[in-house]
Backbone:
């Protein structure tokens, strides 16, 4: 049954020897996981050697998260076994997996927002004094010790909801380390991090590796994967399709993943801009702290042009898109589309005016998780022809429409009647895109359009965005991903603390953009980069420092 | 106060109004809008105070009798000891307070609270030592003093709001106290007699007694909601507790068995709630309401068919008599109020302390709160969410059941139809008013008990305020509390949401 569980009386001395050596070899043999008729994992074999960083690469919906959830005791495998140091183990719940030395950092953090760091770390593993009273002091001590060891800089008494995402992630790692995890699973840990936070995380992973821990690392960003991994396992449609060396080129990795050649660079024709139809003038948004989160913003987008909004997360991008969409009550100024004022109108009106919108957080604003794919595809068109007649809906037309789009956008799903909530992250995003891009648009806005997507899907989405542009639609892309901004944009607008630092051509260098994201005006940034061309600042570091500095700004 | 900088973590979500009704747990707790709500609210109350206590005041004096609250044969020694102890406590706490402020260390909320308590005890002890019989206050003069103070405080609040500064917590507290004094003086002076007076001890003791079932009920609510289950069935638990306490105590002839059976009965109601809502995922609020209606019907039916037919053998439970705690009961004024209680009353103190310490200082409590805030996270660290919920809901039911026994074993010694009279719902309000905290809920329940008792006393002495108006007061307080005048109250994030694994 459960070996390596400290509570189990047959194994304590073994655990002891393990903990002394600090290594653990993990093996998955023939793991199969079915959800109804869908086979998410199909006889997967995987060996995680001690002290290694093992990357899992695979398309959206390949079954990576499912496999990890099986390993962590959250799902029961349909078939197959897990071995630790050659001995089979069964995890009935995550508690047992943890006791066996497996820790997992989920993509959506499993932290209690209103608890302090210490309380979160202690939870489930509490040290107690007499009479069951909590002994948080010992937890605090451990947190400080780990913080020091890995340079985490985490205050045990901070309340989790007040911490930035990067720090929350460290709390998750501490949670695993406090439980003496020897294997650490990180499921898309960098999807929500700023470039600087990502670099710091990679450093932490290297340090953990040096301490003999093994890491399972899931990411769609090939640059990171190449940078950090010792072994790469590629999974496609639930099956292991092979191993890859970290020295393999990104194109090789990408094609192994997707099963066809993928182009990692986007080739697009120069924009053929038409008349300016979308105008934002003096847009100001005031938040509940009476701060100007969007401050006197003015810009235009012409037909057939992509304007990318760049900037470190939290510099007013969210509020800008909300204001355009009509969900920001405290916005002033003017937003016009083809001369029609949109500010102050309802969301329904704005969408009806031909604005396509891909929200930043799909699960929150873009989709209804319990609705089927076909229903989600017509969320905003349900009352229009051809999907409705009078007050009735036409299920046949709705299903056909969904089937066509699922095909076109390559959404991996067993059926169009599956609930959207059961789709993998990347496939959910495709559903949103499919819905928004398949009606006539007069303006297309996408926030983080490729967050969590695999390389194949990114290629596809980028092509679709450019196709929409070439179709003559003004396009606004909001992205914190500098690579994406530079690939898609015809012009780049940089936001800093809600103000427009400048609008520059897409050919502007990374370094200049990095400085601008820290609030340096375009011409100064150019000059400064030109002057320091040999000892150039890392563009990633600069905006983050600025973000911190922003906290003291009132 | 940063807005343009990195937003706190959980803000991957957009913060637009479209989502503001989403799970409260993911929202940041730091940013709070300094609104005019407080300033305007205080202003309105101040104007009300000026009209009532100032313009409508009469020339009588308002008397507050203290003598009755002091046993004639109570030792003066107790008063002296209290005086010395309270003095020492107040001095120590005051020192601690100023010292921590000076060194910049964290001043926990308990320090100001206990300091104020110590000062109040000190004052009462002084009255006891001085053998003061009665305090008579000229209502006109005092009314105007209070009015002016209220206006000043409201103006200060507005003054603070202008530059968007936060209104300090003490302002609300002092405002409430001044308003209360003004109100009491005004109302008592309005009595029929030439020199109207009420017994301060009687007023307070009655408040505590009336609060007992409310406290148990709200503790039940806290236990359930903290673990993520909404317990609307408190009313039913109180009622069935009262019923079974009456019947079992009569049948067995043992009031203590009656008490135990009340706990069991409350637990049974919870069992149904738990099975139906946790296991079968039926909407918790609907289950609760249905249970209340069901139990009201069931007990009414049994009462009118069985109990009224043979009250001698089924509905004559006998009483849990008040017991004095030696020495403590001799503390002037406070002693007889707090330390002359029935067993149920003392159990109430124990329950409040146990639930408080349990929730916030034990392993059990940490897990309970985790399950109520983010069940999935609790699951991933190996906590069995639904088992934890089940256990807590049962516990909550038992606590409410004991509260129900108060009606038949302490207050009246017989069961009557629907005798809980909606107190289960008031208990729910006390829980919200007390911000899901056992001590907060206890204080809120005391306040409701106070308003309840004040109403009956006013009816006796005759007063300018119709008693119906006073009867409205607890509910008005609840509405104000829930509307957030007393600050942001945030329920446990997963409260009311069933947990399905996977
Ligand atoms: N609870 C569930 N019920 C039904 N199907 C599920 C469930 N969880 C996952 N699936 C399906 O299993 C497949 C694998 O999903 P999984 O989340 O493991 O993908 P992934 O590799 O992590 O993808 P991504 O990179 O997009 O996160 C998907 O087709 C998904 O629809
Ligand atoms: Mg995944």
Residues:
């Amino acid at each position: 049954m459960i070996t390596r569980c400290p509570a189990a009386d047959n194994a304590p001395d073994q655990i002891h020897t393990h903990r002394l050596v600090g290594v653990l070899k993990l093996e998955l043999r023939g793991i199969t996981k079915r959800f109804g008729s869908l086979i998410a994992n199909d006889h997967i074999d995987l060996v995680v050697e001690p002290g290694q960083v093992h990357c899992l690469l695979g398309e959206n919906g390949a079954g990576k998260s499912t496999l990890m959830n099986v390993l962590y005791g959250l799902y029961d495998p349909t078939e197959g076994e897990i071995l630790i140091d050659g001995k089979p183990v069964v995890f009935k719940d995550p508690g047992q997996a943890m006791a066996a030395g497996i820790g997992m950092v989920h993509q959506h953090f499993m932290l209690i927002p209103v608890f302090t760091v210490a309380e979160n770390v202690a939870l489930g593993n509490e040290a107690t004094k007499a009479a069951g009273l909590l002994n948080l002091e010992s937890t605090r001590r451990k947190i400080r010790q780990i913080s020091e060891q890995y340079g985490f800089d985490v205050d045990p008494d901070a309340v989790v909801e007040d911490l930035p995402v990067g720090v929350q992630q460290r709390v998750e790692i501490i949670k695993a380390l406090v439980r003496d995890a020897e294997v650490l699973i990180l499921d898309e840990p960098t999807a929500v991090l700023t470039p600087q936070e990502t670099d710091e995380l990679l450093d932490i992973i290297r340090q953990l590796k040096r301490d003999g821990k093994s890491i399972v690392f899931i990411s769609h960003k090939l640059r990171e994967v190449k940078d950090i991994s010792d072994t790469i396992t590629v999974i496609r449609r639930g099956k292991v399709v092979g191993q890859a060396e970290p020295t393999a080129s990104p194109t090789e990795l990408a094609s192994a993943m997707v099963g066809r050649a993928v182009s990692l660079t986007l080739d697009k024709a120069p924009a053929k801009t038409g008349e300016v139809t979308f105008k934002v003038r003096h847009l100001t948004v005031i938040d509940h702290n009476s701060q100007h989160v969007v401050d006197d913003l003015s810009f235009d987008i012409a037909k057939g042009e992509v304007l990318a909004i760049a900037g470190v997360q939290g510099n007013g991008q969210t509020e800008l898109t909300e204001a355009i969409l009509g969900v920001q009550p405290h916005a002033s100024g003017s937003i016009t589309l083809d001369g029609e004022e949109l500010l102050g109108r309802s969301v329904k009106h704005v969408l009806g005016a031909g604005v396509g919108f891909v929200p930043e957080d799909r699960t929150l604003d873009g989709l209804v998780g319990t609705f089927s794919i076909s229903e989600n595809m017509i969320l905003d068109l349900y009352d229009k022809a051809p999907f409705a007649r009078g007050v009735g809906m036409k299920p046949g037309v709705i299903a056909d429409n969904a089937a066509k789009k699922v095909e076109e956008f390559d959404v991996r799903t067993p059926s169009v009647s599956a609930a959207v909530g059961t789709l993998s992250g990347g496939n959910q995003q495709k559903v949103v895109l499919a819905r928004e891009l398949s009606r006539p648009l007069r303006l297309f806005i996408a926030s983080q359009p490729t967050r969590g997507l695999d390389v194949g899907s990114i290629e596809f989405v980028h092509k679709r965005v450019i196709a929409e542009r070439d179709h003559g639609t003004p396009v606004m892309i909001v992205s914190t991903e500098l690579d994406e901004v530079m690939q898609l944009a015809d012009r780049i607008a940089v936001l800093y603390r809600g103000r427009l630092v400048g609008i520059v051509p897409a050919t502007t260098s990374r370094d200049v953009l990095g400085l601008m994201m820290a609030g340096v005006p375009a011409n100064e940034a150019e000059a400064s980069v030109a002057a320091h061309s040999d000892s150039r600042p890392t563009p990633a570091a600069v905006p983050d420092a600025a973000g911190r500095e922003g906290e003291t700004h009132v | 106060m940063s807005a343009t900088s990195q937003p706190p973590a959980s803000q991957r979500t957009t913060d637009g109004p479209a989502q503001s009704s989403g799970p409260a747990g993911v929202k940041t707790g730091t940013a709070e809008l300094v609104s005019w709500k407080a300033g305007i609210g205080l202003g309105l109350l101040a104007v009300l105070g000026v009209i009532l206590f100032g313009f409508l005041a009469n020339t009588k004096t308002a008397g507050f009798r203290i003598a009755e609250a002091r046993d004639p044969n109570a030792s003066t020694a107790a008063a002296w000891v209290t005086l010395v102890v309270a003095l020492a406590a107040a001095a120590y706490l005051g020192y601690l307070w100023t010292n921590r402020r000076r060194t910049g260390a964290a001043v926990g909320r308990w320090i100001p609270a206990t300091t104020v308590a110590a000062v109040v005890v000190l004052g009462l002890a002084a009255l006891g030592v001085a053998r003061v019989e009665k305090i008579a206050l000229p209502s006109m003069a005092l009314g105007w003093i209070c009015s002016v103070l209220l206006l000043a405080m409201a103006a200060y609040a507005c003054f603070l709001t202008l530059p968007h500064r936060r209104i300090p917590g003490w302002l609300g507290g002092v405002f409430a106290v001044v308003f209360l004094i003004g109100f009491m003086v005004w109302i008592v002076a309005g009595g029929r007699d030439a020199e109207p007076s009420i017994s301060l001890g009687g007023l307070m003791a009655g408040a505590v007694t009336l609060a007992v079932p409310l406290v148990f009920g709200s503790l039940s609510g806290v236990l359930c909601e903290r673990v993520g289950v909404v317990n609307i069935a408190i009313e039913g638990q109180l009622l069935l507790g009262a019923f079974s306490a009456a019947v079992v105590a009569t049948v067995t002839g043992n009031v203590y068995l009656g008490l135990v059976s009340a706990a069991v009965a409350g637990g049974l109601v919870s069992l149904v709630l738990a099975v139906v809502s946790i296991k079968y995922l039926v909407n918790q609020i609907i289950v609760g309401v249905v249970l209340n209606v069901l139990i009201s019907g069931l007990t009414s039916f049994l009462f009118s068919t069985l109990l009224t037919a043979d009250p001698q053998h089924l509905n004559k439970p006998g009483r849990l008599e008040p017991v004095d705690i030696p020495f403590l009961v001799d503390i002037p004024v406070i002693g007889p109020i707090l330390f002359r209680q029935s067993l149920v009353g003392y159990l109430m103190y124990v329950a409040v302390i146990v639930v408080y310490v349990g929730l916030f200082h034990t392993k059990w409590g940490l897990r309970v709160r985790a399950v109520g805030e983010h069940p999935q996270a609790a699951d991933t660290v190996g906590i069995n969410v639904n088992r934890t919920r089940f256990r807590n809901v049962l516990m909550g039911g038992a606590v409410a059941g004991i509260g129900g026994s108060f009606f038949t074993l302490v207050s009246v010694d017989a069961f009557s139809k629907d005798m809980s009279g909606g107190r289960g719902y008031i208990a729910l309000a006390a829980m919200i008013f007390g911000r899901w905290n056992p001590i907060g809920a206890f204080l809120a329940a005391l306040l409701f008990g106070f308003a309840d008792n004040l109403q009956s006393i006013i009816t006796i002495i005759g007063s300018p305020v119709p008693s119906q108006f006073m009867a409205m007061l607890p509910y008005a307080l609840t509405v104000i509390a829930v509307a957030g005048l007393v600050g942001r109250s945030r329920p446990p994030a997963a409260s009311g949401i069933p947990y399905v694994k996977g």
Observations:
- The first strand of chain A starts at residue 26 and ends at 35.
